[in-house]
Amino acid sequence: MSDSPLDLPLRAQAAGVAAGELDGAELLEAALARIDERNQAVNAVVETFPERSREMLAGAPPGPLHGVPVVVKDEWPLPWRAQRFGAADMLVPASPGESGPYRALRDAGATIVGVANMHELGASSTGNVSVYGPARNPWNLERCPGGSSSGPAAAVAARLVAGAVGADGIGSIRYPAAYCGLTGLKPTFGRAAMEGHHMADVSTTIVSGPLCADAADCRLLASALFGSEMQAGEPRGLRIGVLRDEVSEDVDPAVRAACEEAIDALRAQSGGEVREIELPDLPAAALATVLIANAEGLRGVTPHRLNHLHPELSPLGRGLLKYRILLPAAAVAKAYEVRALMRRRLAALHEEVDLIAWPTVPAVAPPLEAPLVELPSGTHTADQANVRGAALANLTGVPAVSVPVGSSGGLPSALQLQGAWGADALLLDAAEALERANGRRWVEAVPPLAQGAPDPAEA
Q1: Does the structure show a pLDDT above 80 at 102?
Q2: Of the candidates 68, 379, 384, 430, which lies 20 to 30 Å from 252 by C-alpha distance?
């Protein structure tokens, strides 16, 4: 590991700039240089704009992120750049503008150093398809970084920057956090800045959120996106709910063991208890989330547009757009009924438990060329397997955080903690408690690429 200030945590960079121990201009130039040095391998950042970044730094107020370089997913416009959603065709017009995440970062004093890659149209948990080419996992360049916030996660894991803004519509912050060994927070719906997103006024599942190395950095970046500071606390007597069904048991044995060990460590660290709970109809909840998200994505979809799609849009992207227009209204209406049912069930469960814990994803990052995972039940596509555990938080709007808890075959594994509506701070408190319980072993692990070592896939 180098002694570059870029390798410091986000909060340490911010504190160093505030104390005059670090220079924001030097940090920015170091980030631009590191992107030049490392990004060709991971394809995490799709565009930099040095002069715009320097102008942003020159006008930065003395906020909590003053002088700290970050990247933003290609899902929001910037004043000098329109979003592209990782796709050759978005269906709806896009133009530069002051999006909510841009204003939140600007007002916190941060410097946006680049735009990060994403899975085409935000339509997968893998990150292996993009108009820019796939982003790659810094732990193994032949593996998926996770989607759709593939670039933000790969950028932080490769230590191009210490913090990135992603978006989570059906797990799209938590999947890449899990695959890349980061902490990723999916905030309570409506809490984080979303203005400027082309679905901000129609989506009931998508939120912006932070991807960072650890929970304390996520707290700092999330506070900027929320527009209010989240105070850290010490969780005591946590009641941790666990399920005994496919979301926790149809899991790669190494991932399952790491998650069970982490749950027990969190219980011991907080002086709490683990309670077995039941949450029927999780498969129906996952399907309902997919139906709602796709129905809400119908904006700009007409037969004429579907017959005149950009030729560079992938066959899968074309199929997805055409699938949306065929969704039966009755099925979507039923999906909203499932949402109401699951919200009631979660409200009742949170009378008994503070957190619900299960693996973020059931297996480590699959190959880019064939994103399939082997589970006790057989071979599945990563998307099919991943949505089972991630969709519920988007369907119901509650917060969830992915925390690194282990490693298998040189690839990270992760635990998801899900809380009641508004319990974002508690989730980060619990994540920090878990970090202490395991000696910060997993949040301080750094992939070979960030250590200057050769990628294991090339060894």
Answers
A1: yes
A2: 430
Q: H helices of 307-381, where?
A: 315-324, 329-349
- 131: pLDDT confidence band, cut at 50, 70 and 90? very high
74, 168, 208, 269, 394 from 189: Cα distances, Å: 20, 10, 9, 29, 8
Percent of the chain with pLDDT over 90: 93
**Which pLDDT score is estimated for 2?**
66
Return the half-sphere exposure (C-beta side, CA atoms, 13 A cut-off) of residue 13. Answer: 33
CA distance 209 to 127: 17
| Contact of 115 with 311, CB cutoff 8 Å | no
Q: How far apart are CA 251 and CA 325, in angstroms?
A: 34
- pLDDT, one tens digit per residue, over 38-56 is 999 999 999 999 999 999 9
Catalytic annotation, residues: 73, 148, 172
Name the pLDDT band for 399 (thresholds 50, 70, 90): very high
Q: What is the mean pLDDT of residues 311-320?
A: 93
Taking the alpha carbons at both ends of the chain, their separation in whole angstroms is 19
**pLDDT band with cut points at 50, 70 and 90 for residue 299:** confident
Q: Where are the domains of the chain?
A: 7-287+324-458
Helix axes 424-437, 253-270, angle to 10 degrees: 100
CATH fold of the domain at 7-287+324-458: Amidase signature (AS) enzymes (3.90.1300)
Nearest C-alpha neighbor of 430 from the set 278, 277, 275, 263:
263
For 300-315, write each residue's pLDDT tens digit.
888 899 999 999 999 9
Tokens found for residue 319: 């199929």
Closest-CA residue to 350 (of 247, 427, 270): 427
Average pLDDT over residues 221-237: 97
Distances (CA, A) of 118 to 7, 121, 146, 176: 23, 8, 9, 10
Residues 147 and 127: their CA atoms lie apart, in Å, by 4
Q: 181 near 447, Cβ under 8 Å? A: yes
